Protein backbone atom coordinates (compact mmCIF):
# COMPACT_ATOMS: atom_id res chain seq x y z
CA UNK A 1 0.00 0.00 0.00
CA UNK A 2 1.42 3.38 -1.00
CA UNK A 3 1.62 6.39 1.30
CA UNK A 4 -1.08 8.12 -0.76
CA UNK A 5 -3.45 5.15 -0.50
CA UNK A 6 -2.77 4.85 3.25
CA UNK A 7 -3.47 8.58 3.64
CA UNK A 8 -6.68 8.25 1.60
CA UNK A 9 -7.87 5.26 3.61
CA UNK A 10 -7.11 6.77 7.03
CA UNK A 11 -8.38 10.23 6.04
CA UNK A 12 -11.51 8.82 4.41
CA UNK A 13 -12.33 6.67 7.44
CA UNK A 14 -11.75 9.57 9.84
CA UNK A 15 -13.94 11.90 7.76
CA UNK A 16 -16.69 9.29 7.44
CA UNK A 17 -16.70 8.78 11.19
CA UNK A 18 -16.64 12.49 11.98
CA UNK A 19 -19.25 13.36 9.37
CA UNK A 20 -21.59 10.38 9.83
CA UNK A 21 -24.23 12.46 11.71
CA UNK A 22 -24.15 15.00 8.85
CA UNK A 23 -24.39 12.21 6.26
CA UNK A 24 -27.47 10.84 8.03
CA UNK A 25 -29.04 14.31 8.34
CA UNK A 26 -28.51 15.12 4.65
CA UNK A 27 -29.88 11.73 3.58
CA UNK A 28 -32.98 12.26 5.75
CA UNK A 29 -33.43 15.81 4.47
CA UNK A 30 -33.19 14.69 0.84
CA UNK A 31 -35.60 11.80 1.47
CA UNK A 32 -38.17 14.02 3.20
CA UNK A 33 -37.81 16.86 0.70
CA UNK A 34 -38.06 14.75 -2.44
CA UNK A 35 -40.92 15.79 -4.70
CA UNK A 36 -40.80 12.39 -6.39
CA UNK A 37 -41.41 9.49 -3.94
CA UNK A 38 -39.30 6.40 -4.56
CA UNK A 39 -36.61 8.32 -6.42
CA UNK A 40 -34.04 7.70 -3.69
CA UNK A 41 -31.56 9.98 -1.98
CA UNK A 42 -28.58 9.11 -4.19
CA UNK A 43 -27.70 10.12 -7.73
CA UNK A 44 -25.65 7.61 -9.70
CA UNK A 45 -23.22 8.39 -12.50
CA UNK A 46 -20.72 6.16 -14.29
CA UNK A 47 -17.19 7.58 -14.23
CA UNK A 48 -13.77 6.39 -15.34
CA UNK A 49 -11.63 5.23 -12.44
CA UNK A 50 -8.03 4.12 -12.18
CA UNK A 51 -6.73 2.83 -15.54
CA UNK A 52 -10.10 3.73 -17.07
CA UNK A 53 -12.10 1.07 -15.21
CA UNK A 54 -15.64 2.41 -14.95
CA UNK A 55 -17.50 2.51 -11.65
CA UNK A 56 -20.76 3.96 -10.43
CA UNK A 57 -20.16 7.12 -8.44
CA UNK A 58 -22.88 8.11 -5.96
CA UNK A 59 -23.72 11.57 -4.63
CA UNK A 60 -26.69 12.95 -2.73
CA UNK A 61 -29.57 14.37 -4.80
CA UNK A 62 -28.93 17.88 -3.56
CA UNK A 63 -26.88 20.87 -4.61
CA UNK A 64 -23.71 22.17 -3.11
CA UNK A 65 -20.76 20.56 -1.36
CA UNK A 66 -22.92 18.31 0.83
CA UNK A 67 -23.88 16.34 -2.27
CA UNK A 68 -20.32 15.00 -2.40
CA UNK A 69 -20.29 13.43 1.09
CA UNK A 70 -21.06 9.87 -0.18
CA UNK A 71 -17.89 10.07 -2.28
CA UNK A 72 -15.96 9.32 0.93
CA UNK A 73 -17.23 5.74 0.61
CA UNK A 74 -15.48 5.50 -2.77
CA UNK A 75 -12.27 6.84 -1.21
CA UNK A 76 -12.34 4.19 1.51
CA UNK A 77 -13.02 1.38 -0.97
CA UNK A 78 -10.14 2.58 -3.20
CA UNK A 79 -12.06 3.73 -6.28
CA UNK A 80 -11.35 7.41 -5.62
CA UNK A 81 -8.75 9.48 -3.82
CA UNK A 82 -9.17 12.46 -1.52
CA UNK A 83 -7.18 14.47 -4.10
CA UNK A 84 -6.96 13.75 -7.81
CA UNK A 85 -8.23 14.70 -11.25
CA UNK A 86 -11.88 15.61 -11.72
CA UNK A 87 -14.03 12.45 -12.25
CA UNK A 88 -15.21 12.14 -15.86
CA UNK A 89 -17.51 9.77 -17.72
CA UNK A 90 -15.65 7.00 -19.60
CA UNK A 91 -16.82 8.45 -22.93
CA UNK A 92 -15.50 11.94 -22.20
CA UNK A 93 -12.96 13.19 -24.73
CA UNK A 94 -10.36 13.70 -21.98
CA UNK A 95 -10.31 9.96 -21.28
CA UNK A 96 -8.73 9.33 -24.69
CA UNK A 97 -5.56 10.37 -26.47
CA UNK A 98 -3.17 12.64 -24.55
CA UNK A 99 -5.71 13.07 -21.75
CA UNK A 100 -5.78 9.31 -21.12
CA UNK A 101 -2.82 9.68 -18.76
CA UNK A 102 -5.25 11.28 -16.27
CA UNK A 103 -6.49 7.70 -15.75
CA UNK A 104 -3.12 6.64 -14.31
CA UNK A 105 -4.31 7.99 -10.92
CA UNK A 106 -7.64 7.72 -9.09
CA UNK A 107 -10.13 10.56 -9.59
CA UNK A 108 -10.43 12.81 -6.56
CA UNK A 109 -13.02 14.43 -4.34
CA UNK A 110 -11.01 17.58 -4.76
CA UNK A 111 -8.07 18.66 -6.83
CA UNK A 112 -6.40 21.61 -8.47
CA UNK A 113 -9.58 22.23 -10.48
CA UNK A 114 -11.59 22.60 -7.26
CA UNK A 115 -9.37 25.19 -5.60
CA UNK A 116 -8.68 27.15 -8.78
CA UNK A 117 -12.17 28.20 -9.73
CA UNK A 118 -13.97 24.99 -10.67
CA UNK A 119 -16.85 25.88 -13.00
CA UNK A 120 -15.50 29.39 -13.56
CA UNK A 121 -12.46 27.98 -15.41
CA UNK A 122 -12.44 27.25 -19.12
CA UNK A 123 -12.40 23.49 -19.76
CA UNK A 124 -8.91 23.62 -21.29
CA UNK A 125 -7.49 25.14 -18.10
CA UNK A 126 -9.17 22.49 -15.92
CA UNK A 127 -7.67 19.86 -18.20
CA UNK A 128 -4.17 21.37 -17.85
CA UNK A 129 -4.50 21.53 -14.05
CA UNK A 130 -5.51 17.86 -13.92
CA UNK A 131 -2.66 16.76 -16.19
CA UNK A 132 -0.15 18.82 -14.20
CA UNK A 133 -1.40 17.08 -11.04
CA UNK A 134 -1.06 13.64 -12.67
CA UNK A 135 2.52 14.38 -13.72
CA UNK A 136 3.72 16.04 -10.50
CA UNK A 137 1.57 14.86 -7.57
CA UNK A 138 3.06 13.96 -4.21
CA UNK A 139 1.67 13.81 -0.68
CA UNK A 140 2.74 17.37 0.15
CA UNK A 141 0.79 18.69 -2.85
CA UNK A 142 -2.25 16.70 -1.71
CA UNK A 143 -2.04 18.22 1.78
CA UNK A 144 -1.80 21.73 0.31
CA UNK A 145 -4.81 21.13 -1.95
CA UNK A 146 -6.84 19.69 0.93
CA UNK A 147 -5.99 22.70 3.11
CA UNK A 148 -7.20 25.07 0.37
CA UNK A 149 -10.40 23.15 -0.52
CA UNK A 150 -12.70 24.19 2.33
CA UNK A 151 -11.84 27.90 2.04
CA UNK A 152 -12.41 27.70 -1.75
CA UNK A 153 -15.83 26.08 -1.26
CA UNK A 154 -16.79 28.68 1.37
CA UNK A 155 -15.73 31.55 -0.91
CA UNK A 156 -17.90 30.28 -3.77
CA UNK A 157 -20.85 29.68 -1.46
CA UNK A 158 -20.54 33.14 0.09
CA UNK A 159 -20.34 34.71 -3.39
CA UNK A 160 -23.67 33.09 -4.33
CA UNK A 161 -25.43 34.66 -1.35
CA UNK A 162 -23.88 38.14 -1.68
Describe the structure in brief.
The protein is of the alpha+beta class and 162 residues long.
Helix content: 40-55%
Cα shape? globular
Largest sheet: 2 strands, antiparallel
Rg (CA only):
16 Å
Q: Strands of the biggest beta sheet: in what spatial order? A: 1-2
Approximate strand percentage: 5-15%
Multimeric state: single chain
Helix/strand order: HEEHEEHHH
Category by helix and strand content: alpha+beta
Unreliable stretches: none
Distance between the termini: 45 Å
Mean pLDDT: 89
The beta-strand count equals: 4
Total of DSSP H or I helical runs spanning 4+ residues: 5
Can you walk through the features of this model?
About 50% of the residues lie in helices and about 10% in strands. The protein has about 160 residues and is of the alpha+beta class. Strand 1 and strand 2 form a beta hairpin. Helix 1 runs antiparallel to helix 2. The radius of gyration is 16 Å and the shape is globular. The mean pLDDT is about 90.
Give a topology summary.
Elements lengths: L2 H31 L8 E7 L5 E7 L10 H7 L3 E3 L24 E3 L1 H4 L7 H14 L2 H23 L1
Parallel strand pairs: 3-4
Antiparallel strand pairs: 1-2
Key traits:
single chain, 162 residues, alpha+beta, two-stranded antiparallel ribbon, two-stranded parallel sheet, 5 helices, 49% helix
